[in-house]
Structures are given as C-alpha cells and as structure tokens.
C-alpha cells in the first residue's frame, strides 16, 4: 500500500471534516493503529476541473468536491478507471438568494435579472435550479431560467450582488456566502435546495479511482475511521471544531457565526450519501451524463454501502 | 616629409609589371545569355515555404497521435484522431463555428480598440517627454496585472457581458503593442526622422507617413503578440467574467466541455484556436509582410 | 550688391553635442552671411563640423551660443523651405520607390498635387540618369544611385535654400561632372540659393561663388573667399586654399 | 555639348561678387569660452525623469483616491488609502513579502527558462529556413493558447507544484521573446551582418557578438513584454493549479483574500505586483537601457 | 612574374540580385586575375557592379555563372582572410567604441589575444588620426571619421587580401592624401594584396598597379590596364582612361 496519500480540499465550511482530519492527524493515527506508517499530503484547489485533472494524471489520490463533478467523472469512467464516491461529507442546503424584493418565487424571474452561480449548466447549483424550474414551472421548462444565469465565483458573485452596482441581483451560492448574504436585510431567500430535492441531500463528497481503493484497503479503512471520528467530533464539540476551522482557514467570520453554520439544524454531518439518485436521474435524463442507475450504491464504493443512503 | 614621399615613389617603381594590357569590345546589353546553375529536385521543393510548413505540421500531428496513443488516457490527453473527430463533429453541428464567431467578434473589437489606444499612447509618447514617462509608467504598472484584477472595475464600468470582455482584451493588447511600437519608433534612423521633418511633416502626419512605415517590422511584431495574447485572455476571461448561457464563445465551449469531462471536445476547441492562429499568421500577417517588409528590403 | 539683405545670417554660432558622458563642441562661434542666389561652399577637413552646421541651418540643432536667421526669422525648426541632401546613404524612404521618394517629398511638403508631383519627380529622376530604376526600391540601388535620388529630390523641391552635404562624394568622375552641370544649369534657371558641403577644393571652386574655410576641432572660420570662373585664377585659388588648409604640413602639392 | 559648357561659364561669370574676402587668425582650441543659454527653474526640474514619473504616480494615486471615495463602495473598489493601509499591514505581518517571494522564485525560474528556450528557437531560426518555419509555426500555433490548455500536459509531465507553474510560465514568456528577438535579428542591417561574417564569426558566436547587441532594442522590448506576461500568467495559474498548504504565492494571496471578501487586501496584493513592476522597470530595465541602447546611440 | 599562380581568379562571373519582383544582373561574365601583392583597382561608373563584385569576392554572393577562386580554393563563404571596408557608413558596430571596433575585429577573427589586439588597434586608430576619439562610440563621429575607423580596422587586420569599397570617398583632400600614403606605406611594409574600388581616376593611378575598367548595366570588363608611377605617363594614362570611360560623350576633359 502507498506510503503517502494525497488528498484535496477546496474552500468552504463544507470541507470541515477534512480540515479536522488534517489538523488532528486522524488519518495517520488510524493508519498507525492498523499497522501502517502513513503520511498525508493536503492540496488546495479552487475548482473541480483542476482537481479532476490532477486525479486523472495520478497526482492526487482522493478528491473532494460537489456532487455534480463527482457524478460527471463517475459516468465518464465507467469503462476504464471506474471513479466512484468514497463517502459524503455532509448534507447541506443551498439557497438561491436575491436582493430584488419583487422576486418571491422562481416565476418572478425575468430578463431584468441575473442569477450568479459557479458554472452555468454544469455546477450543482445550475442543475438544482433546472430541477426546480422543472418542478415549479412545469414539465419541459427546465431550462427556462438558464438564460438569466451567469457564471461567477462565490466571492465575486456576492461582491457583485451586495455591492449593488452591477446587474447581478441573485446568487445561487453555498455556505458561508449564502448565510452572510441573508444577514443583510436587502436580501432574501427564493429557493431552498432541500425543497427541490424533497429532503436533505449531500453537498460535498470525496472520491477516488477504483485502482487506488482496491490496492489500499487499509488506507481506506483508516480514512473511513478518521471521517467517522471527525464527524463525531463536529457533532460533539462544535465549539472546538469552529475554533480549529477559524484558525487554519482564512475567514472573516466571527466564532459565533462559524458555530451557527456548523450547528445549523438543517445541516447534517454524515458520511451517508443523501439525495444522490434524483441528481443521477435528472442529469442522465437531460443528457448531462451518459450513464444512469437506480441504485445509489453503484455510484459509491462499498465503504458506505450499508449506510442510510438515497 | 619629402623623404617619405620619395620612398613611396620608390616602392611604386618596383612593382612594374609585365602582364599584358587587355581590351574588350563593347557587347550590346541585349545579347546577354546567362546559364543558370541547376537546382536539385529536393532543393526546388525545399524552397516552398508552405511545403516546409506542411511537413512541420504533419510531423507535429504525428507526434501528438503517437504520444496520445502511448499515454492512452482519453480523459486527460486525447489522440489527434479523436480530437479531429470531435472537431468535425463540432463543425458539423455548428457549435464550434458559433462559438468561434462569438469569440471572434469580441476579439476583433478588443483588438481594434487596443490598437487605437496603443497608437494614441505612443503618439503622446513621441510628442513629449511627459508622454514618454506616462507610457513607460503605465506600461510597467498595468502590463503585469492579470485580467481578474480588472474585474471589479470592469463590472462597475461595463457590467456583465461583452463590454467587459472588450475592456479586458484592450488591457491585454494595448501594452504589448504600445511597447513594440514605441521602441520601433525610437529605433527609426536619425536620418529618416530628419528627412520627414524636412518635408515639413509634424504630429500625426509625421507619425503616419514616416514613423509607422519605418518602424513597421516592430509594429508588426507587436500586432502579432497582441493578437496572440488577445486570444489567451479572451479564453480565460470568458470564464472569469461569466457569460450568460447560450452566448458563450470558444472559452466557454472549452470550459463547459471540460466540466463535463468531454476532453476530445475541449481539445477540439483548442484546435480551433490553433487553426485560427495558423490561418491568421499565414494568410494575413504573412501577406502583410510580403507586401511591406519584404518588398522594402528592411529585413534580411 | 553689398546692400542686399542676406538670406541667411549665421551669427557667432557654437554647436555642441551633449551625450550622457561627453560634451563635444563641433563648431565654435562661426559667423557668415549667405546672400540670395549664393552658391555658398563649406570646405574643411573631416570632422570639422560641416555637417553639424548644415544640420543647424536645417533646424535640427539649437546653437548653444549665437543665432541663425533665415530671411530675418530665427531658425527654430526644420521645414521644406530648407531642403537637405544628407551625407548618409539611408536618407531615402525604404518603403517608397525611387520615383515615389521624389514625388512624396513634393507632395508631403504641400508643394503640389500628387499628380504634378509624379510628373515632376519623373523629370528629375531622369535628370540624374535613373529613369530605368524609377520603380525600384532604394535597397536595390548602389550607393551612388541612392545619392543621386537624394539629389533629384533636393533639386525637385526648388527650396529657398538647398542644403547639400557632400552630395557627389559617392559618384564616379563622369556622373559627378554630369551632376555638377545639372546643378549649375538648374541654378541658372531658377537662381536658388545653395549651401554646399564638399571636401574637394576643385569642386568648391567649380560649384561655388563664395567659399567658407573651416579649421578643425572645433570648427572655426578660417577664411571666407570668393570663387572665380577664370581657369588660371582657379588654379591659383586652388593652390591658395590648399596652402591654407594644409599649412601645417609643408608638403609639395600633389594631385589625387 | 560644348555649347552647354560655354553657357555655364557664362553664368558663373555673371556672379562675380564685390563682397570682401575675410581671413581669421587661428585661435588656440584651449582658449574657447562658451556662454550657455540659461534654463528656467521649471525646465531644470522638468528634465529629471524620476521627478516627472513621481508626479505621474502621485496624480494616478490621487485619481484612485478620489474615485474610490466618490464610489464609496469598499466591497468593489477600495480607496487608495485603504489599500495602502492593507499593504503596510501585509508588509508588517510578513504575509505579503512571503507571498511575493514565493511567486518571485517561480517567476524568475520560468522567466529564465523561457529566455533560454526563446534563444534556442531563435538561434535555430537564424541557422536554417526550416528553423524559421518551425519558429513561425510554433509561435502562431501555441502563442494564442491559454495556460489552462497546457494544464493536462503539465500535470502528466511535471505533476502538481512549482514545476508545472514554471512550465506554464515558460509558455507565456517564450513566444513573445522569440518573436521580438527574431524580428530584431532580421532587422539588423545587412552591412553589420556582413561585417560579422567577415570576422569569421559563425553560429553562436555570430549571434552573441553581432546579432544580439545589434538587435538589442527589440530584444529588450521582448523581455519587458515577457516579464509582464509572466506575472499575469503566474497569478492566474496559481489558482488553477492549487497549492500544497502554506506555500501560496501572490495569486493565492489575492484569491484567499477575495474569498474572505477582504477587498483592500486583494488590492494590496495587486499593488504589490504594480510596485514590483515599477521597480523592475525603473531599476533594472532602465539601467540596462542606459548602459546599452543610450550609450550606443541606437535609439533616438 | 607571369608564371606566378594568381592569388584570386575570377572566371566569367555573372552576378544577379533576385528580388520577389525583379531580377537584376549586376555584372556579366567578368574575368580577371589578381596576383599576390597586387594593388588591383576596380573603376567604373556608378551602379556598374563594383560593390557587387567585391561582395562576391568577399563571399557574400554566389555567382549565377562562373566561379571565383582564392589561392585555388573556390570562394563559398566570407572569412577574415578577405577583410572588407564597405562603402556604407553603418559598418561599425555601434555598441563598441572606436578602439574596440578595431580591436574586436582582430580578436574575434582569432588573429591575436585581446591584449595585443588593443595595442594594435590603438596604433591604427592613431594612424587615421582619431586617437582622441578612441573611446567615442560611432554615433558620435562624422561621416568621414566613421570611414577612417573602418579603414583602420581593415588595415589592422593585415588580411591576405584587403577589399576596399570607395574607402576615401567621404574624406577631404588632405585627409584623403594622408590615408592614401598610409595605405601605400603599409603595403610597402607587408606587401598585402588589395582590391580597391574607386571612382577617381587619379586615385586609381596613384594607388593601383593594375586597373580594371568596367562598363555599366550590367558591368562588363572594358579593359585591364597597368598603372604607372611616372608623372608624365600618369597624366597620359588618366587622359586615356577618361576617354575610354567617357567615350560616348566627346567632351573636353575638365577637372573637378
Ligand atoms: N551625433 C553626434 N554626437 C556627438 N558628436 C557628434 C555627433 N555628430 C558629430 N559629432 C562630432 O561633431 C564633430 C563634427 O562632426 P560633423 O559631422 O559636423 O563633421 P563633418 O565636417 O561633416 O565631417 P565629415 O567631412 O567627415 O563628414 C565631430 O568631431 C564629431 O565627432
Ligand atoms: N541589394 C540589391 N538588390 C537588388 N539590386 C541591387 C542590390 N544592390 C545593388 N543592386 C543593383 O546592382 C547594380 C550594381 O550595384 P553596385 O552596388 O555593385 O554598384 P557600384 O558599382 O558599387 O556603384 P556605386 O559606385 O554607385 O557604389 C545596380 O544596378 C544596382 O541597382
Ligand atoms: Mg559630414
Ligand atoms: Mg558601390
């Protein structure tokens, strides 16, 4: 088995379990308990595509990101590398926030609106928006809002919307940006992804190539154990977890704000993948991915097969 | 020094020669026949620039194909044939031409404006010392700034969409062209500049009629570099600036397909950029060169 | 004639080149007057400041001391009223053909329309014997041919004052004599004024009516002489100038 | 045409003059005194390049400050004073110098390698026709390609980290420098080239001792453009490539602070780039220019 | 002497310039031999191909027809065994001072060490009267001064054959005579071979021992004559050459 495992992180509170594993050396600890001297190397990425390329070129073992990119690479590699999810990190709601008081539902959006989201058409926000359009505006109208969407990174989108000088007046973001935006009285929520999906759904997952998982059973076991421990830590000591996170992550949030984010009742820290199937079903139906399945277990390695996934 | 002179005379006396003198009759210029040395078949072919370039391109394509096959990782680096296939598919279903057209429009606008701005700055720089300092200072300050640095200003001034893209393009084109043009202007021979002034040319007329043609090789290099950087910037900027869906250019095409991990299509997009580059270089820039620099004999 | 206003007055002019590391004085307090219709010669050893003086009259240099006036107006900048034929071979615009080079000068300086300029250009290009090269670009010409184009351009402009800097230096004896004759013939027709730099004493006497002798490093006026057309006097004058210039080298005058 | 000659003699007889001849005594060169024309105080100050540039910088800073204040939108565009404050904070706590140093190292490496590669390509281009075609083809193909296009190859060949960054930098530097150098070489006067060959110089010696100094203004322009684009590319690439923890450069600094919505710090990062640009231009490139181009009198 | 091997043989050489739109024949089937120690003059009207012939001997052009051999070896490329003094003023390296320009030639062509080169350079720079400008860069020199540096460089190299293209054209009478004498003195010392282009018949007779007359467009050999040192014969020879060159213009011989 490998002596060094290379893991990726991105920005955001959603990667908190990984931050704790890194800071508390949990992976090394569990590997040692299983009799393996393991080193870790943590890499930072700002987006999914650079990370996927790193994974495919063998420069990265375990990637972390949203459900969308994971499903894409899963569908693409079915016949060769067989990339699959390892585990979820949490279930978290995504909000569509707007500063236009006129807009109360999706139907109120018109040409005068610009909705910022990370990547038009392909990001998890864009897909969720399409699913919402289909659900609330009617069958066949899934792309009705696409014309109003604009690709923009979360910080740029928040600055543009709250700065109030550009056409951007809505943002389908992620924590903590959406929470910060909602603190401003000018902004309000139009859409909640939990409602679209009909319940909680996974936001971030980690994934790897089949080859790596098969060749490194001990590492994978240690990783799962580390994940469980860190999630347990978050549940039991949100205060400490927030402190650690604020210390190592560049943030302008206050301690209380971080704690609020972590302990938000709608957030569920769990390795169990939730709401995966609706995404698979929708994405394959509109042709975003070419593979489909009706068992969420096909998308994940067997480490999480006995959890309460969906 | 009469002595020295005497010695010189002495020298010359010694050299008296017994070679016969030769006289030729005048030939009429019309009667001349010239026997040229023959070239071998290979040499004749080798003299054709387009042939040499085609060979280079073929070799590069071959290397790509072979490397792609040995690598055997279609998700990272597709083979040349897979790329060509994706390219033709994209060409047939109209997505690639549409994307290229959409990018091309913005590009030409930004490029054109950049040239105008560069011309203005350089003209100011030639007109006064403070103009020179201004150009130098602006260039050394702004040229190293990446396009994302301009995002906030672009958003404030131009909002989303093409206007902002054009702004960023101007930024990427202007400085390179201005630098080359200015250094070209400074390098124009002193005599030529004096000749121009002698004709009473001044200001814009002097720049148009003397400096620009005299500095043309430098300017053309600047235009080439500006052109290339405009493409680079455009493709990167289409991501940073966001595009409303449905109106994306080549950058968007590449980004979207990359997100969907459709890598042959990504490379088909890049291939389009490459092909446009080759076409512009060999049809436009080369023609300009042939009509100007080569005819004037200013590059050797 | 003495009462005429001079066309060009040069009054105590000192010309210097300032480079970052050197200050070179090219001429020192040079004074002379050029009358309307003069064929005024600048004669002196290599590096004595002849070209520099011409450039100053052309308006390209500002004197450190003294001043130069053309028709009473101080010279501050170049202009087509003083047409220059430079010493350098690269004075033709490489992007124009021989004919265009001459025509462009006429047209750009607003002397005449493009049409007229073309015709006049062709006339002068023929005068210097380059009719068959009218459509060649300068890089295809020999050194002497380039200079002839510059001469054609200068003469075609018919300026108030023609400034010629060793224009015939690169020409063979025959071509040179033809050019000299063309110049004198043209002068006969239009009575323009010419300020002519040469290093040939014989040429000075043949071309000029007044000759300024300069001494070297920095250039100062040694003498200002009248020329002559009498063959015998010419030989004497030549000897005389020879002596003045070469006075520090008491050598027999040899002809070369 | 004895007639013509007779007429000429006639002309010349007419011009006999009554002006007196003038003779001067020789002055000794040592005795010369020269009275220079005085300059006004403003003119003396205006002659100082650094002073003019400082004024320009001050005016730009003022405009920034005023615009920032009227805009009054710290989230989008902070004032100059806020930026300066953030800059000094960053300077004091060491984050900015560390980031600049980390970027600088990579940058210099990429820049250096880019120069070497450009030199090699240009040397090949000067050596043979096929070399010229190769350079032209490569440049027109690859120069327009954005850095992201090279990412997959960079990852395969160099993995994550600085080596890949250097690779991307080389790509952004090489073509611009090669284009300028090549066009500079081609523009070297025919006579100078003949002189060099006459000395028996050939190959690298010919390039080093004749072509490079003769084409120096063009090369320097290429180096300036390459330098600027290296910065641009580096800052953009640091985001795409990701970083191992704790090793980020200026690009990462900017991104991180943007994520935290600490916009003055973002601008402090950009200001660092600007300041480095100004320093490099005025200390390094200007000095080189003074020592070479200006002393040789090849630009006017 | 007749039995000696020629140093340089030029055999039926036709030289052409190919440009994208024109084909210019500069010389047509020119043949001549230059012996070791010759001071061989090329004389002919402007544009007759003198410079082109020199460039071909220098190895810069390949004949369309015929061939040129130096010491029996075909000339294919330039080299320091044939040192050129060009007609153009821009033949000095602008980034080197006067002294360095001469020294660099000596050093770069592996004639001598850097040290020796410096000394020798200074010696020759003094010979052409530019000692006080030894540390100036070329752009600070007058036209004639530039040419003198080139002459110093050519002579300092002491090549097998020195190719000089109108080297004294830009020089005043005095400086010119000095340079001519320097050249002859140097020849006396080292007996090098020189191929000399000039447009002055007097100079040709003074400098040369054998004179090649060329007719124009394209350049063809008109005659190959021996020079003379006898003053009376020289005048006759001058008249003779004059007649041959100007034969189509039956005019009195005037001196200028
Ligand atoms: N651009 C320049 N910078 C500095 N010094 C210069 C420059 N041009 C000329 N000089 C100096 O000025 C002096 C006069 O030069 P000028 O060219 O006027 O001489 P000239 O009389 O025309 O000589 P020649 O007959 O050789 O052409 C010389 O000593 C020369 O070194
Ligand atoms: N680079 C070139 N390209 C094309 N034609 C040229 C080139 N150089 C010279 N020629 C032509 O070749 C012929 C001979 O030119 P060359 O320079 O040898 O003459 P030359 O005898 O040296 O004249 P001069 O005494 O005027 O210097 C001329 O007709 C000229 O037009
Ligand atoms: Mg001069
Ligand atoms: Mg010649």
TrEMBL record, chains B, D:
One of its GO terms (biological process) is transmembrane transport. InterPro entries: MetI-like (IPR000515), MetI-like_sf (IPR035906). The chain crosses the membrane at residues 49-68, 75-100, 106-127, 148-179, 199-223, 235-255, 267-285. It is found in: Cell membrane. Coiled coil: none annotated. Residues 92-284 form the ABC transmembrane type-1 domain. It is a multi-pass membrane protein. Keywords: Cell membrane, Membrane, Transmembrane, Transmembrane helix, Transport. It holds the Pfam family BPD_transp_1. One of its GO terms (cellular component) is plasma membrane. It comes from the Bacteria. SUPFAM superfamilies: MetI-like. Belongs to the binding-protein-dependent transport system permease family. This is ABC transporter permease. It comes from Paracoccus siganidrum.
TrEMBL record, chains C, E:
This is ABC transporter ATP-binding protein. Residues 8-241 form the ABC transporter domain. It comes from the Bacteria. Belongs to the ABC transporter superfamily. Signal peptide: none annotated. SUPFAM superfamilies: P-loop containing nucleoside triphosphate hydrolases. GO terms for molecular function: ATP binding; ATP hydrolysis activity. Transmembrane segments: none annotated. PANTHER family: ABC TRANSPORTER ATP-BINDING PROTEIN, TAURINE IMPORT ATP-BINDING PROTEIN-RELATED. Keywords: ATP-binding, Nucleotide-binding, Transport. Pfam families: ABC_tran. InterPro entries: AAA+_ATPase, ABC_transporter-like_ATP-bd, ABC_transporter-like_CS, ABC_transporter_ATP-bind, P-loop_NTPase.
């Amino acid at each position: 088995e490998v002596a060094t495992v290379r893991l990726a992180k991105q920005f955001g509170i959603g990667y908190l379990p990984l931050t704790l594993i890194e800071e508390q050396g949990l992976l090394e600890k569990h590997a040692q308990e299983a009799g393996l001297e393991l080193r870790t190397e943590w890499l930072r990425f700002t987006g999914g595509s650079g990370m996927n390329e790193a994974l495919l070129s063998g420069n990265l073992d375990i990637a972390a990101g949203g459900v969308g990119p994971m499903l894409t690479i899963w569908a693409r590699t079915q016949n060769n590398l067989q990339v699959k999810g390892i585990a979820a990190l949490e279930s978290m709601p995504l909000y569509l926030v707007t500063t236009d008081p006129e807009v109360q539902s999706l139907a109120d959006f018109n040409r005068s609106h610009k909705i910022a989201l990370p990547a038009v058409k392909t990001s998890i926000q864009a897909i969720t928006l399409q699913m919402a359009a289909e659900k609330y505006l009617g069958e066949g109208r899934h792309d009705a809002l696409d014309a109003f969407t604009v690709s923009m990174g979360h910080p740029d989108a928040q600055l543009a919307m709250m700065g109030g000088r550009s056409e951007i007046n809505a943002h389908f973001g992620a924590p903590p940006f959406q929470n910060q935006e909602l603190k401003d009285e000018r902004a309000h929520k139009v859409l909640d992804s939990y409602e679209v999906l009909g319940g909680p759904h996974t936001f971030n997952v980690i994934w790897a190539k089949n080859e790596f998982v098969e060749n490194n059973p001990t590492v994978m076991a240690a990783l799962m154990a580390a994940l469980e421990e860190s999630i347990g830590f978050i549940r039991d000591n949100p205060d400490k977890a927030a402190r650690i996170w604020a210390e190592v992550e560049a943030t302008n949030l206050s301690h209380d704000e971080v704690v609020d984010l972590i302990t938000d009742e709608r957030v569920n820290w769990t390795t169990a993948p939730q709401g995966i199937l609706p995404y698979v079903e929708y994405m394959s139906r509109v042709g975003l991915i070419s593979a489909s399945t009706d068992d969420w277990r096909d998308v994940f390695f067997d480490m999480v097969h006995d959890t309460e996934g969906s | 020094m009469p002595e020295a002179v005497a010695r010189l005379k002495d020298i010359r006396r010694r050299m008296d020669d017994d070679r016969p003198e030769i006289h030729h009759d005048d030939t009429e210029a019309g009667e001349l026949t010239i026997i040229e040395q023959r070239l071998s078949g290979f040499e004749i072919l080798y003299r054709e620039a387009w042939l040499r370039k085609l060979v280079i391109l073929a070799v590069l394509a071959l290397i790509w194909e072979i490397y792609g096959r040995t690598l055997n990782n279609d998700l990272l680096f597709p083979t040349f044939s897979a790329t060509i296939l994706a390219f033709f598919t994209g060409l047939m279903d109209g997505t690639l031409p549409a994307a290229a057209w959409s990018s091309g429009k913005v590009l030409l606008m930004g490029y054109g404006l950049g040239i105008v701005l560069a011309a203005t700055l350089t003209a100011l720089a030639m007109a006064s010392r403070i103009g020179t300092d201004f150009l130098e200072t602006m260039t050394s300050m702004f040229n190293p700034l990446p396009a994302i640095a301009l995002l906030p200003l672009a958003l404030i001034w131009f909002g989303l969409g093409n206007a902002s893209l054009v702004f960023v393009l101007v930024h990427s084109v202007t400085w390179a062209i201005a630098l080359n043009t200015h250094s070209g202007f400074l390098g124009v021979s002193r005599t030529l500049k004096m000749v121009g002034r002698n004709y009473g040319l001044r200001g814009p007329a002097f720049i148009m009629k003397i400096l620009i043609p005299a500095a043309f090789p430098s300017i053309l290099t600047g235009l080439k570099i500006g052109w290339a950087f405009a493409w680079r910037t455009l493709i990167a900027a289409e991501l940073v600036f966001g595009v409303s869906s449905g109106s994306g250019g080549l950058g968007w095409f590449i980004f979207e397909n990359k997100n969907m991990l459709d890598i042959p299509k990504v490379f088909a997009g890049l291939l389009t950029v490459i092909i446009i580059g080759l076409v512009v270089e060999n049809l436009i820039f080369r023609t300009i060169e042939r009509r100007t620099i080569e005819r004037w004999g200013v590059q050797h | 004639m003495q009462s005429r206003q001079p066309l060009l007055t040069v009054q105590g002019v000192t010309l210097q080149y300032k480079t970052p590391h050197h200050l070179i004085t090219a001429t020192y307090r040079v004074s002379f007057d050029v009358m309307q219709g003069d064929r005024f010669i600048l004669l002196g050893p290599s590096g004595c400041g002849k070209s520099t003086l011409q450039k100053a009259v052309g308006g390209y240099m500002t004197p450190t001391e003294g001043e130069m006036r053309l028709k009473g107006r101080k010279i501050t900048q170049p202009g087509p009223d003083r047409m220059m034929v430079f010493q350098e071979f690269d004075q033709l615009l490489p992007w124009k053909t021989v004919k265009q080079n001459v025509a462009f000068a006429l047209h750009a300086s607003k002397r005449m329309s493009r049409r007229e300029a073309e015709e006049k250009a062709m006339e002068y290009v023929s005068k210097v014997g380059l009719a068959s090269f009218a459509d060649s670009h300068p890089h295809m010409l020999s050194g002497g041919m380039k200079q002839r184009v510059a001469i054609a351009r200068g003469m075609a402009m018919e300026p108030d004052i023609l400034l010629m800097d060793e224009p015939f230096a690169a020409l063979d004896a025959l071509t040179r004599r033809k050019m000299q004759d063309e110049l004198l013939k043209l002068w006969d027709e239009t009575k323009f004024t010419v300020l002519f730099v040469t290093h040939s004493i014989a040429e000075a006497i043949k071309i000029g009516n007044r000759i300024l002798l300069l001494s070297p490093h920095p250039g100062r006026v040694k003498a200002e002489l009248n020329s002559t057309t009498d063959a015998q006097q010419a030989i004497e004058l030549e000897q005389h100038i020879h002596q003045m210039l070469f006075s520090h080298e008491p050598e027999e005058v040899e002809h070369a």
